[in-house]
Design a protein that fits this description.
Layout: E1 9-11, E2 18-20, E3 24-26, E4 32-34, E5 66-72, E6 83-87, E7 97-101, E8 108-120, E9 147-153, E10 166-172
Antiparallel strand pairs: 1-2, 3-4, 5-10, 6-9, 7-8, 7-10, 8-9
Length: 178
């Protein structure tokens, strides 16, 4: 080693060998290491900047409270029928969803109301004052003050349903079925 003024001897922090100051470098970790094999540059991945996430939801709406109203069928329904007689309800509209509890634990048949007709009187008459007929073609009679609906579904019911079976009517925004 030749003498260079101000070039003192140092010990490499990594390998422990002795070198002149001109043969050493301070690493990014703060260690003084030799340039002969111990020096390591900082990895480029240490300089990658992340892209901040945008946690906002593109379309947001307030919570909508859903509940299910329940009533009963006022007449038997055979499989493959689309007409439903519903007891004492107000607030129904075309395109409303409707679920009919079928017999023998076959489940609930869900459909949509395609056409809706209000019933009233005894015997029941529709909006054209024609008597309402049940699945057997008999005139339907009801208690005084009865009102209800004939709903035509957009799909036929798969299994039979008896008078008194449950009919489910989902409502939104806490509307109540009467």
């Amino acid at each position: 080693m030749t003498y260079i003024p101000g070039d003192w001897k140092m010990i490499c922090d990594r390998c422990g060998s002795t070198f002149l100051r001109s043969q050493m470098a301070e690493e990014w970790t703060g260690l003084w290491v030799c340039t002969k094999g111990c020096f390591q540059t900082r990895h480029p991945q240490d300089f990658v900047e992340s892209v901040p996430d945008d946690p906002s939801v593109p379309v947001s709406r307030p919570d909508v409270v859903q509940s299910v109203g329940e009533t009963t069928l006022s007449d038997d329904m055979t499989a493959d029928t689309k007409r439903v007689f519903i007891v004492c309800l107000t607030g129904l509209a075309e395109d409303d969803p409707i679920g009919i509890e079928t017999n023998y634990s076959k489940g609930t048949h869900w459909s949509f109301i395609e056409d809706l007709e209000t019933l009233s009187g005894d015997p029941l008459v529709d909006s054209e004052d024609s008597p309402v007929l049940d699945a057997d073609g008999e005139t339907v009679t009801a208690a005084d003050g009865y009102s209800g609906y004939i709903c035509t579904l957009n799909t036929s019911i798969f299994f039979a349903a008896d008078m008194g079976n449950a009919v489910y009517l989902p409502s939104l925004n806490n509307e109540e079925w009467q």
